[in-house]
Specification:
The chain is α/β, with parallel strands linked by helices. The chain contains 13 helices and 13 strands. α3 packs antiparallel against α10.
């Protein structure tokens, strides 16, 4: 086994404080607790939009779902994706030339990096960030170059942090926008600076936009692929799991320039196989009628405010109101490490949250709370238990 795999622990899912999806789920449920560490909208409640489920049922009953689609995705799905890209992202993509359907965005993220990184190549990753951004780099033999962001800047990046870490081995920037876990929506000006930096130094940019919807408070969600000079050097990765609430379908997609996507088309069957056929039929239905997501977005807006209202004023706790998605990123460094506080909340509040340690070196004093799960009444009850437990911990310090 190669060294990169020997040292792998299981990433986000290796222990209770890292949102283990095995025993931790069962144990917290058996105790009547709340799993607020799994970014799966409304889990464990049924939440399949009827028209999406019906499309999948019809594909099964007709027998169509027993067959492969092309490894690059069903042509009708790619047409619907192209319409969404134009409307939501301002990206003018050709369905048969610029879009590749993937079995979820995690596989898409790995595939997006795979053609470009070889041993010793340096990959710039904002810290804190999605754990796979770090792990994928290491598996491919690359070297992670961590770009710190700061709570004082609302977790917006500073271009000078990239500039001072540039070397002759720098090959790629991996960006999660909006950020997971901080929820920061990167503003147009720093993204323009980053685009200029990437063009100047001939860098590839891989951007994961899984949490692109919703963004709150009228914040502009800028797809970096639309900025000057970026289309030909950006691989954008998208998901139907978060804003569309279809995580179980495992449908994502990659968007890139013809010259990049052509090579990915040629290797898709070896790397990805093919995305589940019934899931692709459900995805087509969801994209053709996404009106149901408006209620989701309104709920996520209320939920971020519930968590902020109950937790922001606890002594030793500091946080910003979430800018996007359904996560809250909370500084608990005055109360303990992220791992310590996560374990404490599991024990004292019957709530499982993520330790910030999983998201990079900058996350060590933080916890990530997924407020997009359960129903709103259950969320509020769990958040009140968290408040009581954290007040008790703060008093003991």
């Amino acid at each position: 086994m190669i060294p990169a795999f020997r040292k792998a622990e299981g990433g986000l899912f290796s222990s209770v404080e890292k949102a283990d999806v095995g025993d931790a789920v069962l144990k917290i449920a058996e105790r009547g607790g709340a799993l607020m560490a799994w970014a799966d909208p409304f889990y464990p409640l049924p939440s399949m939009p009827p028209h999406v489920g019906q499309a999948m049922i019809e594909s099964i009953e007709s027998g169509f779902a027993s067959h492969y689609t092309p490894p690059i995705g069903h042509s009708e799905l790619k047409v619907e994706i192209a319409k969404k890209l134009k409307k939501v992202n301002g990206i003018d993509a050709k369905p048969q030339r610029n879009i590749l359907v993937t079995p979820g965005s995690d596989s898409g993220l790995f595939f997006a990096m795979l053609p470009f990184i070889t041993r010793g190549d340096e990959v710039m990753v904002i810290d804190p960030s999605y754990p796979n951004n770090f792990q994928n780099t290491e598996i491919l033999g690359g070297v992670v170059v961590r770009i710190p962001v700061y709570m004082a800047d609302a977790f917006q990046f500073r271009i000078e942090e990239f500039e001072r870490r540039l070397t002759a081995r720098t090959k790629m920037i991996v960006l999660t926008n909006p950020n997971n876990p901080t929820t920061a929506v990167y503003r147009r000006k720093p993204l323009l600076d980053l685009a200029e930096f990437a063009v100047k130094h001939d860098l590839i940019v891989v951007v994961d936009q899984a949490f692109e919807q919703p963004c709150f408070d009228d914040l502009e969600m800028v797809s970096i692929a639309t900025l000057p000079g970026m289309w030909e050097r950006t691989i954008s990765v998208f998901s139907l799991s978060k804003g569309m609430g279809l995580s179980g379908l495992r449908v994502g997609y990659i968007v890139a320039d013809d010259r990049i996507i052509d090579k990915m088309y040629g290797t898709a069957v070896a790397v990805l196989g093919a995305t589940n056929t019934a899931a692709q039929m459900g995805a087509i239905a969801a994209l053709r009628d996404d009106s149901y997501t408006e209620a989701y977005f309104q709920s996520f807006d209320r939920r971020r405010k519930i968590v902020f209202e109950h937790l922001h004023d606890i002594p030793g706790v500091s946080m910003h109101l979430a800018e996007s998605g359904f996560l809250s990123w909370i500084n608990v460094s005055q109360l303990g490490s992220g791992s310590e506080v996560a374990l404490y909340l599991n024990r004292e509040a019957l709530v499982s949250v993520n330790a910030g340690d999983s998201y990079g070196h900058s996350g060590k004093g933080y916890i990530r709370v997924v407020h997009g799960v359960m129903n709103e009444a259950q969320l509020e009850a769990a958040t009140k238990r968290m408040r009581a437990a954290l007040l008790k911990l703060a008093k003991a310090k």
